[in-house]
């Protein structure tokens, strides 16, 4: 019995011993280490513009369609979405802005949406540093506004944010993915 216990403990110790480590200190089975780095399926990216003297900056992870049903499938209707992948999307303003009829102080905010077939809800939340919408709390919202989605003639493969200056002091922020685009105006002051 002691020999069987010893053999089992030895096997367990060997199975749990560290494998080769790469230069980052991560453990890998030598068969899993490759010289090629894989591109992330939802790369981190940003959209930004100077609107007058106000810098508008959006950080997000951009997933691709890759043959999937996006809205009403991968992205559920009528549920809070980070409007990207992985970490919550953030939007920041160097100076105060007005969105809809709401004054938004300068700062950095979590950007969320609630997609719907006929309307979307745009949300700015005080909390911007979270994984997905895990820690989202509606009580932290500073803005909720409804917008109508637009159906695109040509699909957009990768989620894309744009910030386009309209008249030197105002801008339109647009989000396009698959066959849907939503937009809203941001006014300085």
Number of structurally distinct domains:
2
Class by SSE composition: mainly beta
Instruction: Tell me the radius of gyration.
Output: 23 Å
The end-to-end span amounts to 80 Å
Strand portion: 35-45%
Mean pLDDT: 84
Low-pLDDT sequence parts: 4-36
| Major sheet attributes | 6 strands, antiparallel
Q: Tally the beta strands.
A: 10
The ordered string of helix (H) and strand (E) elements is HEEEEEEEEEE
Give, in spatial order, the strands making up the sheet with the most strands: 1-2-3-6-7-8
In oligomeric terms, what are we looking at? single chain
Number of helices: 1
Helix proportion: under 10%
| Shape type | globular
Note down, in words, how this protein is organized.
This protein has two domains: 2-32; 44-188, no CATH class. Helix content is 8%, strand content 44%. It is built from one helix and ten strands. It has one helix at residues 2-16; strands at residues 44-51, 54-61, 89-93, 97-99, 102-104, 107-114, 120-125, 141-147, 150-165, 170-188. The strands form two sheets. It has a six-stranded antiparallel beta sheet, with no helix packed on it. A four-stranded antiparallel beta sheet has the order 5-4-10-9, with no helix packed on it. Strand 9 (150-165) and strand 10 (170-188) form a beta hairpin. Residues 4-36 have low confidence and may be disordered.
Keywords:
189 residues, mainly beta, 2 domains, six-stranded antiparallel β-sheet, four-stranded antiparallel β-sheet, 8% helix, globular
Question: What is the topology?
Answer:
Blueprint: H1 2-16, E1 44-51, E2 54-61, E3 89-93, E4 97-99, E5 102-104, E6 107-114, E7 120-125, E8 141-147, E9 150-165, E10 170-188
Antiparallel strand pairs: 1-2, 2-3, 3-6, 4-5, 4-10, 6-7, 7-8, 9-10
